[in-house]
Amino acid sequence: MKNIIFVSIIIFTTALQSVGQSKFEKDVFKTPSGKLTIIFIGHASLMFNFNGKIIHVDPWNRFADYKTLPKADIILVTHHHPDHLDTNAITMISKNETQIILTSTVYDIIKKGLVMSNGDKKNIDGIEIEALPAYNTTAEREKYHPKDRDNGYVLTIGKKRIYIAGDTENIPEMASLINIDIAFLPMNQPYTMLPEQVADAVNKFNPKILYPYHYNDTDVSKLKELMSKNKNVEIRIKPLK
Known about the structure:
Strand order of the largest sheet: 1-2-3-4-5-6-7
Number of strands: 14
CATH architecture: 4-Layer Sandwich
Strand content: 25-35%
CATH class: Alpha Beta
Radius of gyration: 18 Å
Number of domains: 1
């Protein structure tokens, strides 16, 4: 009887998670090491599933009931603003062995996790993680995201290089990015970038696929117009307001 109850709980939990994931758009990529699925939750919140290994990025309960989503093997937090750091969401998707990658500012708030500073590199369960700068450059906007505080991340998953920029403008460090397969760039001034700045950033490093994200009410068609002459980059628009 106990076995039956235990199996029923597993089935119910799996079904609940499937329902929780089904409302989100997803793209699937083949890698030499298996299938990578990107789930587009909303705003700056993303989820990656690589051969059953789950990575959550900036989870925020506004866009998902994280109780219904798979537990994280890795959680990435770019900075401490409330639309990127939701401690309740982190609790809901954490298990004992979850690795939380964060900035020193976020660590000071939640008192746990692995701090990565700009330039740091880690390999966690075969996934390479590099922390990159993310900051404002426009005059009088540096207060939102000052230099040397927040992170963007480059993940190498099954030889796919994925750039998650965090809240940033088109900073000079982007010119040093190489072999980026997938890029997530934010687009909402005054906090991050105008479409013109995103286009400038993309032209610096030419990712194969660009997902504008965290774009709120910005007109994404403007970005498509600006990028129309760059045939090296595919722009994919997802509901990531």
